[in-house]
């Protein structure tokens, strides 16, 4: 990886100003993205079109000059490449044919089909070829628990009750699904690194719905396995772990997961985060609603993070993704505020 501001953070160094990128920085809040989306028949088609996906990846870099681009794709391309039926309903989100029985699980591929994901690797190569050297390119995958929660329910659910119930009622089946996703994630991330990404993030968006014992089984242990599997092949490639809602378990993630950076969601107290930062670099954690609000609220939220965490290794980010209704002027305000430090 070329020397970038993110690379220095990955090494545990602080920067005069923290590098900044935003989760969902490519998306519906950008008019140029909306125009691009109109060219694809479906969201999944957009993810699998290297020309369009590369353009979506680069749009926020051109507009805001973030310190990192993140591959434009979706966490559900992994189950798609395992043979699950995946589609997106406009305005409603993802849909899958549920994998909630032994018969449905048996119909999945035993290994992820990397040929199905070849357009994504081509997107990475296209972006890397034109991305300025000082800007990092991030790949990603969904963590097994979060991906499994969609696969079991066939869609998103507020508390992921279908997956939680399956894990209680048929733990052997659920464990088999998680293990299948662990191995798929390792191969998928390694292929992204081979194609040219500089670092990867593991998104566990639904980690916070699980009790502690279940978190350790279905979130923490699979995260450790993925990190170990990727590091076995690519030991120098940084990994960011983002277990949203993990709260008190973040200390375990920092100490024992092997991840290089701990991503912080909006709920993480900054005093607690400062303690984590003594263990590992951290990323986060501005409230997306503060970004939506703009003005003094945005400045206060930004300054709080910079005051408490800016003296150590920090990647400035949101605590979750950019909301679609976010004004572009507010993102510009945020970037100016962070880079003023």
Describe the structure using short key phrases.
alpha/beta, TIM Barrel, two-stranded antiparallel sheet, 16 helices
What report would you give on this structure?
The chain has 341 residues and is an alpha/beta fold. It has a single domain (5-340), classed as Alpha-Beta Barrel (TIM Barrel). Helix content is 50%, strand content 12%. It has helices spanning 5-10, 31-37, 43-47, 50-64, 77-81, 102-106, 118-130, 144-153, 161-169, 171-195, 212-233, 250-256, 270-277, 288-293, 295-309, 328-340; strands at 68-70, 86-89, 93-96, 136-142, 199-204, 239-243, 261-263, 282-286, 314-318. The strands form two sheets. A seven-stranded parallel beta sheet has the order 1-4-5-6-7-8-9. A two-stranded antiparallel sheet has the order 2-3. Helix 12 (250-256) links the parallel strand 6 and strand 7 (261-263).
Outline the fold blueprint.
Layout: H1 5-10, H2 31-37, H3 43-47, H4 50-64, E1 68-70, H5 77-81, E2 86-89, E3 93-96, H6 102-106, H7 118-130, E4 136-142, H8 144-153, H9 161-169, H10 171-195, E5 199-204, H11 212-233, E6 239-243, H12 250-256, E7 261-263, H13 270-277, E8 282-286, H14 288-293, H15 295-309, E9 314-318, H16 328-340
Parallel strand pairs: 1-4, 4-5, 5-6, 6-7, 7-8, 8-9
Antiparallel strand pairs: 2-3
């Amino acid at each position: 990886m070329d020397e970038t501001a993110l690379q220095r953070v990955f090494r545990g160094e602080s920067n005069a100003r923290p590098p900044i990128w935003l989760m969902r920085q490519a998306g519906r809040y950008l008019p140029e993205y909306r125009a691009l989306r109109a060219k694809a028949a479906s969201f999944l088609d957009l993810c699998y079109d290297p020309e369009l996906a590369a353009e979506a990846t680069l749009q926020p870099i051109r507009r805001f000059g973030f310190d990192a681009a993140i591959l434009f794709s979706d966490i559900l391309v992994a189950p798609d490449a395992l043979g699950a039926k995946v589609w997106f309903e406009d305005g409603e989100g993802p849909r899958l044919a549920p994998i909630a029985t032994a018969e449905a699980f048996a119909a999945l591929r035993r290994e992820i089909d990397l040929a199905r994901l070849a357009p994504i690797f081509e997107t990475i190569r296209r972006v890397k070829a034109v991305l300025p050297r000082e800007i990092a390119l991030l790949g990603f995958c969904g963590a097994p628990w979060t991906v499994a929660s969609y696969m079991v329910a066939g869609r998103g659910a507020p508390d992921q009750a279908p997956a939680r119930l399956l894990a209680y009622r048929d733990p052997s089946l659920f464990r088999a699904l998680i293990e299948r996703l662990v191995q798929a994630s390792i191969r998928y991330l390694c292929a992204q690194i081979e194609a040219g990404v500089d670092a990867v993030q593991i998104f566990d968006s639904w980690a916070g719905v699980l009790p502690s014992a279940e978190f350790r089984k279905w979130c923490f242990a699979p995260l450790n396995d993925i990190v170990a599997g990727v590091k076995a092949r690519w030991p120098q490639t940084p990994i960011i772990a983002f277990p949203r809602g993990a709260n008190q378990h973040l200390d375990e993630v920092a100490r024992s997961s092997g991840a290089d950076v701990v991503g912080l969601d909006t709920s993480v107290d900054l005093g607690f985060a400062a303690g984590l930062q003594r263990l590992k670099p951290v990323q986060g954690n501005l409230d997306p609603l503060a970004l939506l609000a703009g003005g003094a609220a945005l400045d206060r939220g930004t300054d709080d993070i910079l005051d408490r965490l800016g003296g150590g290794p920090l990647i400035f980010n949101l605590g979750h993704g950019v909301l679609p209704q976010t004004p572009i002027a507010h993102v510009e305000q945020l970037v100016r505020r962070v880079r003023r430090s």
